[in-house]
Design brief:
Layout lengths: L3 E6 L6 H14 L6 E6 L5 H8 L4 E5 L16 H6 L4 E4 L2 H4 L6 H13 L3 E6 L3 H5 L3 H21 L3 E4 L13 H18 L1 H6 L1 E5 L7 H5 L6 E4 L6 H13 L3
Parallel strand pairs: 1-2, 1-8, 2-3, 3-4, 4-5, 5-6, 6-7, 7-8
Helix pairs in contact: 1-2, 1-11, 5-7, 7-8
């Protein structure tokens, strides 16, 4: 039995004042929806605030990226220990907005996933095809390549500590979510691929869908058997919308 997980990816948005409204609204708004797990990934400067407001609650928090190094001359980077010092449970790894700008290669993402897991974080590994790849009909090839880069780095057992988020690049921030059938197809394909290596891990690992999840489409997406929740960008900027997505996840508890 996999509990649904809804993760807010706040990207480079927010301020001390607006975060406070959002986080307090979330604490209140999710009180009646205990049948799913929730997390908020904030920009690094706001981790202190997220910890101060969410500590002791059922809502987890995390970073949006991290270095694979422990410390040293890496200007602008943040280490796994810095994230755990601020109580992070999750860290997003390999988001397409970073892959596309050339910051993250498959290899670097695999290494970072491993380092995150070793530090006690739950890495959220983002994978997904571009529009050109989707139109070329190679979604399965692309997503398997991205997933295998991590499996090769740390072995199938190492994957177990993380979460996978399938996010088609063409669906991110466009308002055009993948159809529940497409998302289900890919997630089922990914889970079968993992099952060939380890059936238990395939059964237990949470695979999320991300890309224009909103208050309207969440219920149908979360009703799909292999969709274990969502990674939510734009709709996490509105407290009521995000709470409605959390409600959809909690209601999908089977
Ligand atoms: P979106 O972003 O919900 O705005 O499409 C999702 C993401 O980038 O994780």
């Amino acid at each position: 039995m996999r509990r649904k997980l809804v993760v807010a990816n706040r990207k480079m948005n927010g301020s001390l004042a607006s975060n406070q409204v959002f986080l307090e609204g979330l604490l209140l708004g999710t009180q009646d929806y205990p049948y799913a797990d929730y997390a908020v990934c904030v920009p690094h400067p706001y981790l202190f605030q997220a910890e101060a407001i969410l500590k002791g609650s059922a809502i987890a928090w995390g970073g949006q990226n991290m270095s694979r190094y422990e410390s040293g001359a890496y200007t602008g980077s943040v280490s796994p220990r810095m994230l755990t010092e601020f109580g992070c449970e999750y860290v997003i790894i390999g988001h397409s907005e970073r892959r596309q700008r050339g910051h993250d290669t498959d290899l670097a993402i695999g290494e970072r996933f491993e380092v995150a897991a070793k530090a006690g974080l739950k890495p959220i590994l983002c994978i997904g095809e571009t529009l050109a790849e989707y139109e070329a009909g190679i979604t399965d090839l692309v997503t398997i390549r991205q997933l295998n880069a991590v499996i090769q780095e740390l072995g199938i057992k190492g994957l177990a500590s993380g979460v996978i988020a399938y996010e088609p690049v063409w669906a991110i921030g466009t308002g055009k979510a993948a159809s529940p059938a497409h998302a289900q197809n890919i997630l089922s394909f990914l889970r079968k691929h993992i099952a060939m290596l380890d059936a238990d891990i395939a059964n237990n690992i949470r695979i999320l869908y991300g890309g224009s999840v909103n208050a309207t489409n969440a219920t149908e997406l979360f009703s799909m058997p292999d969709i274990d929740g969502g990674l939510v960008g734009s709709a996490s900027l509105n407290t009521a919308d995000f709470v409605a997505i959390c409600q959809a996840a909690s209601n999908a508890y089977r």
